Known about the structure:
By secondary structure, the chain is an alpha/beta fold. The protein has 2 domains: 16-59; 69-163, Alpha-Beta Plaits (2-Layer Sandwich). It has 4 helices and 5 strands, in the order αβαββαββα. A 5-stranded mixed β-sheet has the order 2-1-5-3-4, covered by helices on one side. α3 links the parallel β3 and β4 (136-138). The chain is rod-shaped.
Amino acid sequence: xxxxxxxxxxxxxxxxxxxxxxxxxxxxxxxxxxxxxxxxxxxxxxxxxxxxxxxxxxxxxxxxxxxxxxxxxxxxxxxxxxxxxxxxxxxxxxxxxxxxxxxxxxxxxxxxxxxxxxxxxxxxxxxxxxxxxxxxxxxxxxxxxxxxxxxxxxxxxxxxxxxxx
Length: 165
């Protein structure tokens, strides 16, 4: 007579080792994923609340840097004007790092352009030269390694470097 193979009968309290280790591994992964989601949610909340604080206070009063690096561009076409402005700015402790011609000589009003996001620097340069604040604009450019660009227009004869000669 042949014997029938005996099936192992699991007791209700007996747990399969493979199943329990897989469940433990999955529970650990779920725990870490939940922790990451909580951390990212908290970080997002902090960033949003800080941004709202900056916009709501309105006290973003900027101060001019101690050293302001300026680029002087001749936009009026008169020879030697950029050099006169450069000398004047250097006498007033403003660092001129580049002197050149602008892409055209048809600029009617002199402009001061903020390049780094600190309008106080541009306003200080405009004040030193006697340029109206309405001619101070902001064009941010991370590729420039300077604070302010000055474009000398055809109104150069009304500005301090020429008037004070």
